[in-house]
Every structure is written in structure tokens, then in C-alpha cells.
Amino acid sequence: MAEEQFLAVAVEAAKNAGQIIRNGFYQTKNVEHKGQVDLVTETDKACEDLIFNHLRKHFPDHKFIGEETSAALGATADLTDDPTWIVDPLDGTTNFVHGFPFVCVSIGLTISKVPTIGVVYNPIMNELFTAVRGKGAFLNDSPIKASSQNELVKALLVTEMLGTSHAGTTRDKATVDDTTNKINNLLFKVREEMARCFDLVHRLGRGAVYLGSSRVPPTHPHYLHTAELSREAMTSLSVSQQTARLLDCTTWTGAGPGLMDAAIKGALEAEKPVGGFKIAKEAGEWTTSNFHPYLPPETYLTCRFFSARKHGLVDAAVRSSPTDRTAVVALPGGIGTLDELFEIMALIQLERIGSTLPVPFLILNYDSYYSKLLDFLNDCQEWGTVAPGEVASLWKVCNGNHEALEYLAEFYNVPSDERNYHLSPQKNQQRTAAAVRDRIRPNSYRATPEDNGRTKY
């Protein structure tokens, strides 16, 4: 019974501290150094105080050793035979500071110097590891088991690299060490790029994230609608005859051509900041470039890794306080847009988007562009692979800019008499899909080398 009580109290303390870490993860950190490279934040200290107060309330006769307390005293506490709680309130502070989600609360209990209880909680990934001496280890209440494989040559070692032997990768120590070093170097580069993405978001501010096709030319109606939406989302309020802002934030895109370019130009027309995460070559482009044609270099990053780019775009829409007004807007697009759209949809569904507050997610169904996709998702409901009403609860489908702006205004409780949109005639945004197909030749989004990058009608 005592072990069960020890574990329950430790889990409760870890989860309470995890809430502090989760809140602080998306905010500006006040960082101090406790050594040449070791970092400590206010969150470390707040978590340790919370954990120790919680444990002392239940076990006042126990002893306590904390990483931050010991560091402040400049000494290492002695471990005795008394029941002793050993706490690292924020394990992975460097990751925490740089926005890398591998951080955790670590709590252990020793009795007669023997480790008896262990709790490790990652609040960003929502992973809770627990263990009681002699009773096994668990991840989110599921038992953790080691592989029954005891021959190295038959085991899976994280990944495989091409070896020099016809039989495949060799498993000698030199090869394993070389492979591990290559993996570590790659992971470091990915982590470094993610940190640069998070830093850019921190410098420019979070805001409205636009996802859309890179193939749409400036003459296309969808391009014009996107530029209008981006502009009006920043300038469509009128309060006491003074121009105010609906979102009043940074506009974020993939910093590419097409609809991404339209969103950028709309924001610039509204004289609002823009930021982006570009890649060297978008779909439909025939040349590679690490530079944007007109944006200042301090407003965007050229990403080598898609994972870093995606993390940056998701982080750019996070709301860390009730006064933040952000949004994710999915415009017409192809494979890349759909990939990002469904990934964000899944993050919202699983409550892993990283925002402590809800973020409006809009699907711009210009000219019924997404209607067949929506029909497919309705079919998924009939098959039972999607729960009834699940998709509709995750996003808002808007057929035009007025509907999108009204949804954002209602989401952020803007009074109707303060809304002041300047939109083109509604009929230009609400044409039928058949009318669009009659006007535009098949595959009109797609440029060819002969077109020299221009789309024909």
C-alpha cells in the first residue's frame, strides 16, 4: 500500500509541474547559467518548489534532494538510508529553452539507498513513465517490455545504413559507432534548424498561417481572393472611426510563389509584418533558390528539413494568451498543402497542436475546390473510419472571404457594428465549379518549361 501511495503522489506532483512546463514552453524564457553550458530557467525553480511542497505535504518526515536546490548551495546532498525523494524538476532545460519538445519532470524515491519509485513525465509529448521496484515499468499505464531478441545480428538498431558487405550492414563496433555518429550529426542539424525556426517566430510574433498551392499565377481568381483575404484579415475593423485590426498579427506562409505569395502581398498591402519558412524548390518550380525575390532575409528561413518547416508553421499559429489572435487558413492546393492540412487537422484532433487555447482552422473552399474532398470525408463517416461530426468540429469550411472574415470576427468576439470589410463583389468569389472549369483549361495550375513559368488559360 505504501508503494502505491508513494507512486500516486509522485505522479500527481509530476503532472502539476508538467502544467507549468507546458505553459512556459510556448512563452519567452528568462534564462540563467549555472555552469559553462548548463542552463536554468524560472520554470525549473517553480517546478521544484511545487514538487517539493506537494511531497512534503504528504511525507513530511522524508528527505529531499533537488537539482536546483543543490546547484544553488554549490554542493551535492548526501544520500542516507532515510526515504529520500530525488527530483530533477525540468530535465532537458536546454531543449526547453530552444523549443525542442524532449523535456520532462523526473522524480525518484530511494529507501535505504535503493531506488524504489520512479516517475518521468514529458508534458509536451504527454508521455508518463512510471516504475515500482520489482513490479515493472509502464508508459501511460501500458507495460514496457524489452525485445526477446538476444542476437545482435538479428536485432533492429534504430535504423539501417548501407554497408560494404554483400550480406548487408556489419555489426562490428567500429561500424555501429560510425553509424551512430552520422545519425547524431543529422539529428543535431535538424534540431538546430528547428531552433532557428522557433527563434524566427519568437522575433516576428505568431499570427495567421496560410497554406496553399505554389502553382497558382497572379492572374488566377484564387490568387486575387487570397490577397484580399490576407489584407482584410488585418484591416477589417472600424472602431470610433479609427481603423483597427481583426487579427493584428504577423502573416506566415511557406514563403513560396502562388497563393503563398498572394497572402504575403495582401499582408504587406495592409502594412503588417510577414514571415516564412521556404524550401529551395517548390512544386511546379524549375529552378532552385535559397533566397526570396523581395522579402528581407531576416523575415524568412530556407529550410533543409521538412520537419523543421512544419514545426515552424505550426508554432507560428500557437495562442499562448487569450489576447492572441491567430489562425490557420488552408487555401486551394495540391499534395504539399493537403499534407500540411491533414497533419494540422490531426494535431488539433489529438490535442497536440501545442496551443493552450483554441486556434481557428479555416478551409477556403473557393469555387467548390474542396467539395469532393469533403464528400470523401463524409463517406469515411459512413464507413465508420471517421466519427460523425468529427471533421466538422476540427475546422470551418468557408466558401468565400466574407464568410471567413465573419467566422474570425465571431471566433474572437468582435461586435458586428465594428466589422468593416472591403471586399470585391460576392459573385466573383462564389462562382460555381462548372463556371471555373469552362473558363480555365484542365491542369491550369501546372506550368511547363515551354510556358516559362506562366500558366495559360
UniProtKB/TrEMBL annotation:
Keyword Metal-binding in record: yes
InterPro entries listed in its UniProt record: IMPase, Inositol_monoP_metal-BS, Inositol_monophosphatase-like, LOG_fam
Gene3D superfamilies given in the database record: 3.40.50.450, Fructose-1,6-Bisphosphatase, subunit A, domain 1 (3.30.540.10)
Stretches with biased composition (Polar residues): 423-432
Protein residues bound to Mg(2+) 1: E67, D88, D91
Entries under Pfam families matching the protein: Inositol_P, Lysine_decarbox
Superkingdom of this protein's organism: Eukaryota
Entry binding sites for Mg(2+) 2: L90
Substrates-to-products reaction catalysed: a myo-inositol phosphate + H2O = myo-inositol + phosphate
Biased composition, class Basic and acidic residues, residue ranges: 448-457
Keyword Aminoacyl-tRNA synthetase (UniProt): no
Keywords: Hydrolase, Magnesium, Metal-binding
Cofactor requirements of the protein: Mg(2+)
Family the entry assigns: Belongs to the inositol monophosphatase superfamily.
Record's protein name: inositol-phosphate phosphatase
Lineage: Eukaryota, Viridiplantae, Streptophyta, Embryophyta, Tracheophyta
